[in-house]
Amino acid sequence: MLNDTLPKYFDPRKYASHESALDGCLPLNQFKELCAILASDEGNAFIHLDFRVDEDRRYIATGSLTAQVQVVCQRCMGAVPYDLALDLSLGFVYDEDHAKNLPSHYDPVVMTDGEVILADMVEQEIILALPIVAYHEESGCNPTAVKYASSTDDAPDDEKPNPFSILAQLKAK
Ligand SMILES: [Zn+2]
């Protein structure tokens, strides 16, 4: 399997000192927090990172993160495919204070005991990149679902007497 090449944890300082790279794919279904937001847990996230120590002795990594995720359409609650393609520029820091000193073009990633859990880092990057609300393109929605979604407080027609038919009955008497 492809993701066997990816470590579960990594020490960014070691990777940066050796100018190593990380390359591989992670199945989306392992991301519990992300999958709770998405319409489907199918698919993979592909990550590529090149590590180095920058001129100010920071441990950094640049690269890309791509995934096709299924977000939830806010009109019909169906799945909308969404292509994520992120350019990553990460700065590894010891704590939140350290993160504040990081130049703004780096996204801070806080290490725990000198290590980073790769899946957690990838999951957070994806969640931050998701659209806040998503819709199908005009007319791309599931029409039945839209009908129900937009009339949730109306009882189905057969349960509610039609006011005009009541009127007709009264007139007939
Ligand atoms: Zn829709």
From TrEMBL:
<dbReference type="InterPro" id="IPR039255">
    <property type="entry name" value="YceD_bac"/>
</dbReference>
<dbReference type="GO" id="GO:0005829">
    <property type="term" value="C:cytosol"/>
</dbReference>
<dbReference type="Pfam" id="PF02620">
    <property type="entry name" value="YceD"/>
</dbReference>
<dbReference type="InterPro" id="IPR003772">
    <property type="entry name" value="YceD"/>
</dbReference>
<dbReference type="GO" id="GO:0042254">
    <property type="term" value="P:ribosome biogenesis"/>
</dbReference>
<protein>
    <recommendedName>
        <fullName>Large ribosomal RNA subunit accumulation protein YceD</fullName>
    </recommendedName>
</protein>
<comment type="function">
    <text>Plays a role in synthesis, processing and/or stability of 23S rRNA.</text>
</comment>
<comment type="similarity">
    <text>Belongs to the DUF177 domain family.</text>
</comment>
<keyword id="KW-0690">Ribosome biogenesis</keyword>
